[in-house]
Amino acid sequence: MKVSERWLREWVNPELNRDELCEALTMAGLEVEETVPVAERFSGVCVAEVMRVEKHPDADRLHVCEVNVGHTETLTIVCGAKNVAAGMKTAAALNGAVLANKMKIKPGKLRGVLSNGMLCSAVELGLAEEGDGLIVFPKDAPVGQDVWDYLHLTDHVIDISITPNRGDCLGVRGLAQDISAITQAKLSFPDVPEQEATIPDTLSIALHEKEACPRYVGRVIRGVTADARTPVWLEERLRRAGVRAISPIVDVMNYVMLEWGQPMHAFDLQKIHGDIQVRFAKKGESLELLNGQTVHPDADTLVIADNEKPLAIAGVMGGMESAVTLLTNAIFLESAFFQPVSISRTTRETRLNSESSYRFERGVDPDLQVLAIERATQLILDIAGGKPGPLTEVAAEKYLPRSKNILLRALRIQKILGMSLDDADVEAILRRLDFSTEKNPEGWRVSVPARRFDITTEIDLIEEVIRIHGYNRVPLSSSVSGMQIQAQPEKKIDLSVMRHTLCNMGYQEVVTYSFVDKKIQALLDPSHSPIELLNPITADMSVMRTSLWPGLINTLQYNQNRQQDRVRIFETGLRFVVDNGLLLQQTMLGGLIAGTVFPKQWGVTTREADFFDLKGDLERLFRLTFDTARFEYRPGQHPALHPGQTADIYRGGAYLGTMGALHPGLLRALDITGNVFLFEILTEQLENANPMFFKEISKFPDIRRDIAILVNQAVPVGPIQDTIAYEAGELLQAINIFDIYQGKGIREGYKSIALSLTLQHASRTLVDEEVAALMERIIVALKEQFAAELRG
Fold first, then answer.
1. pLDDT digit string (tens) for 33-87?
2. 487 secondary structure, DSSP code
3. What is the Cα–Cα distance from 560 to 629, expressed in whole angstroms?
4. What is the DSSP string of 82-128?
5. Could you read off the pLDDT of 671-710 as tens digits, one per residue?
6. How far from chain centre, in Å, is Cα 620?
7. What is the value of pTM for the model shown?
8. What is the dihedral angle through the alpha carbons of 106, 107, 109, 113, rounded to the nearest 10 degrees?
9. SS3 731
10. In angstroms, rounded to a whole number, what is the distance separating the alpha carbons of residues 572 and 574?
């Protein structure tokens, strides 16, 4: 937020210079990003009064002006401005003056007439980027006074970075209150008298959505001069705050918003048909906004409407049709409190942002609406004239934010801060923050004003206390902690071990946001309805992830867009799934491979990674459990994966996770090059391991036997291996598949599987007879269970 230092010091003027004030603000959490002068230096320019204006004898667009600059004699100045007129007061650059653009003024003839100086516009003085006439000063501006001093251009703009939780500081009033609390300087509020109604006109206000808008205040003002000139002092304050002056009514709305932090809006009264309706938009309604954009608000968008149509998107932006123009002579002022959640949702859905919505979605003071409209009325009557009607206020107290009553314990302050504060100091700080306190044996019962939306718990109060006391006053101390080596149970696999194992296999760990794009989430995990965020960071981070895959896919896309085709990544993190009305936060391990198996090199032939490469990596990971025999891969179905390359993983009959190839349709939809293989497993099911134990290595030779069987192609290999292991018992040391064949010589619908069995006894040498008998048992078991035929 940009604010004039001079304007700020009118509210609170601590005995600090500019640098000290900025340092105090920054140390209190209101970071000052920069301070800049309000204008480039110029000299030799004074307030002047135009006494007489005549047409230039030889130029239609020039005027010869007699100008009083406070000297004994008037000056003759030739001027081409359209708005020059006798009796006006403006700025005159005298001979020898240097303007903001470094131009030096010298006497000279313009079409034969000697000009002794120059009448200046705001652009020529460096006070505006564009303009079409001379700067106009009020009638009471002192002729001859230096313009630099008259406009107080020694002022500086302080640019403060306001954190999202400090909506109360988005106005001069809020900043001044904080400075007063920090520096103990006296706070001076401007006098805002109640404006007496001189006409009876009112508009009826109907709050149809009291929860979204629990307070709405309005006032009719007739007889305004909408094309009046905005005073230079008000234009200057707006300019120094980074706001462009437009017209007196709009300028007053902006001024009150900057001064008090309360956004307001003015409607052309003649464009309102019937009453004011605060309601949600109806199906099919549309509205052309002040920025020229036409929107079609949905049923959850709060609008301000009359009996016929919407007039504005509540708290965000007004409509073009009901806007105040230079022809307007009657207005309806609006000052309301809108719930932050409602405005935040609207700005997200409509992608509209304004100074008003910026404040409303952070929370404005719910008790400020009447004061703000009185202040705006006062300024409008002073600048544009008119006759005000009585205030109309409609409020639903039930839905308005209320003061919070929080217990603050003295011992808790000491424990959190690591230092003691006197009770009197704590009470003084709370009073300076406008918090009321009631002492009790534990500490204080603190009443926090409703405008402080950022304070809801005891820890927030402690933060406020130390913020005002001063972080720099916290004494240095060394932390002391009793350290103890934690037991490392053998039956527990730490997550870091899993991560290191994957890194050793060539994977790289990534960390992605838990907030993901709703559309990508629906593509990758349509079976779960994600939790939508009320106030997302961006539109493509609007839901909580139900899977780690959206983040992994985004990372893959980012790398492929930068010509990185070989990607092997993994992530550990939470997924958020709603099951039977309960939110489950499950720790998952997910991974992705794409591109070649190995980086390009001379020693290995390049080959694209496939389903079994990923399966092999998972099997190496599962070896950490010393329980590989209990892991099982079953054909699975997943909407995001290829139907023929999807497997569900089980451990001891319990579901562990899913792996497979990304569906070709999704590859096209997401514009991904090549095949992609993913996995996602529950780490909780993987953390348990069998204990390690010593087994003596046999001194006796092992024996290898190979068999080749013919089975139906639908029979998976895993159960065949399990049957062999069961029949062989402890004698089986290893079982390997060295060939699977289908084609010539094999009848249709069948496949040939060749397996190698390694057999060994721990305490003696195996003899051929018992090995032959064992192999016979295995072949019989395979015939009985799988209708397997032994191949010759």
1. 999 999 999 999 999 999 999 998 888 889 999 999 988 888 999 998 989 999 9
2. P
3. 37
4. TT--TT-EEEEEEEEEE-TT-PBP--EEETTEEE-SEEEBTTTTTS-
5. 999 999 999 999 988 888 887 777 788 888 999 999 999 9
6. 40
7. 0.70
8. 140
9. helix
10. 7
